[in-house]
Amino acid sequence: MKDEILHHIRYSLGKDAEHSSVYDWRIALSLALRDRMVDHWYRSTRETYASNAKRVYYLSLEFLMGRLVEDMAANLGLDREARHAIEALGQDYEEIVHDEPDAALGNGGLGRLAACFMDSLATLGIPAYGYGIRYEHGLFEQKFSDGKQVETAETWLTQRHAWEFERPEVKYRIQFGGHVEHHEGKARWISSETVLATAYDTPVIGWKGTWGNTLRLWSAKAPGAFDLESFNRGDYLAAGRSEALARTISRVLYPDDTTDAGKQLRLKQEYFFTAASLMDLMRRYLSDHDDLRALPDHVAIQLNDTHPAIAGPELVRQLVDVHGLEMPEAIEIVRNCLGYTNHTLLPEALEKWHVGLMAYVLPRHLEIIRAIDHDHRERHPGSPRIIEHDHVQMGELAFIMAHKVNGVSALHSELVKETVFEDLHKIHPTRIINQTNGITPRRWLYTCNQPLSDLITREIGDGWVADLEQLKALNEKSGDKAFLAEFQAAKRANKVQLAQWIRQTCGTEVNPDAMFDVQIKRIHEYKRQLMNILETVALWNEIRDNPGGDWTPRVKIFGGKAAPGYHVAKQIIHLINDVATRINNDPVTGDLLKVVYPPNYNVTMAENLIPAADLSEQISTAGKEASGTGNMKFALNGALTIGTLDGANVEIREHVGAENFFLFGLTAQEVQERRLQHGFARAAIEASPRLSRVLGQIVDGVFCPDEVTRYHELVGNLYDHDYFLVTCDFDSYFDAQRRVDVAYRSKTGWAAMALKNTANMGWFSSDRTIQGYARDIWHAGPVNTGGMEKIA
Ligand code: NTF
After folding, report:
1. Helices (H), 402-476
2. Which GO terms describe its cellular component (predicted)?
């Protein structure tokens, strides 16, 4: 390793060791690791071709990969060797690892799930490609200015991205606009704009390097030659125009995972990467097959939400307009290739495109969508329409064009059947299935939590990393005092580290012996960070009322970004920061209560916070969080959950045991009923003196003396339109928190409960999730076991 790193310092970076910077060392280390991936990667590709195995294509507008160096080293089994080599070269390994910017090509859970799936696909040896966009700017960077969120552009690609291979020879012409001509039953799309999609490949190597897949991200370029004529005339802007316009498509990730933002460009992004991916997989298929009717035997395409739902009409277009198949047959072939995963029930997140826009950007696709709609309604009279109120409903389109539709937790999948797709479910009662989300144990325990990972490996060997259910063996240890002490010591080591990081990042001193209570996720009303901060104020009040009481010291930790246009979410951020300022400077509560909100939450920050958490906040309004995956990461790392019966919380609680989970709040059913009661929020506030007092303080400007009216709108909305039932669940939440306080006072009691969480979270490995998709949706499997067998 040492020689390989030095080789890259010299021949890839053109430096000598004495004059190399941290950046140089990082790139050299990354390139040395990448070299070690290549042979595994080629071998996997060769075996896939040789065995004629079915390939899985995961289409996702987001891949939230985070940093890669530690993950890549770990999967190659070179984590220790890499560290030793760097140290032997006189460099600081931590500093080098921390120099890598996060690949933040996603917003939150949906994008991070795609990244975990890539890891599991490679670990399981399933031939797969991830397809997405190589955004120049990932998710914006968040700063706080006087407590308010400020966004700046993220710039990960201003540095060299050492993991990827540029593929200038892989390029496709993606068309937009124009019109369609029909001649003798044949359609010809005369487009008005062309953009080139070019590929960048990142190898994804599974655990122990046994298999390698590819993450192929598309970048947009102008198709034509540079406009030298304008340039020579001195019109430099005109000379650069077509390049700039084309590149716009892969310029930025839309900073919003729940609203249908940025109309035309967003639709172009979706079509751009979907069409390029389908052209690419068709080229691969046709290179050694000639029967298009057999496509579904060799190709499984998974749509990560509706963002790539244009895949249905696009693949039909390729089969009909390019390869001459008949429309009904093409529709059937495509359906047998496609699966669609739904990730949300929030109506504002279900994509709809105005037919005018669709006709303008993708005129041929609009025709095909009408044909698909017609075909479906001929077969199923009374079926819901894809086009409704002049909008193409991408959820309906994805449903109709997929042979399987899945939700992401047991509860969510049932709600999908009962709500968004109620009518389509009646027509296709076996189409909707469930695949509960999972997380990769490689990143989310082995790499991010070394103290705990080492302890577990010492106790039960390292088989758990690829077979997480082996953690069950730890259940036997829950009565073993000595083991519990070591388990606690691992947590404490993580907390000490985090306390130091918090001091550096936020300037706040926190006591590692206090309970670390963490809520990290996008800021959204349904996730109810507001309820958490209101409870924090209520606790502050009670401590101040009785400062000599027997309080359990807490550090409330928040992390997360708000979509730049989401006004209420930004107010909530401001309120959390205002409350933090007041409480952290209160000598009465002192170390008993602290509130910290480090800015710019991302994957790397999650890897720091989760191993150090005692309490995981999963407090969404029941029925709103499709699954959650942070909830799984915390429980796996030995945090206890305070949560509602929502998303995967339900299944986590079943696995870890109800006695090791702090449950509160209304159920999804009760939420529905409560909303129908007139004035429910006002009634709940009036019935809760504690909540009334907190809201009164906020309105009186206790936390914003410089601008007393700052939160009047926020609080006013709670009284009148508390859609997410913060007020109704408040007391139940407060009481559950006090049960948490009591439980935390027994150190070994708490440690035993925490261990039960770690021991019983094995089922939530994304390896299990991927096996479910492979078995129930893709009918695909690893090459080396002859395909399906192992999984079935
Ligand atoms: C998210 N959906 C859900 O809100 C989470 O509950 C879930 O864990 C993840 O997907 C992964 O399934 C979205 O981000 C989106 F875009 F659909 F709103």
Report:
1. 410-418, 422-427, 441, 450-460
2. cytoplasm
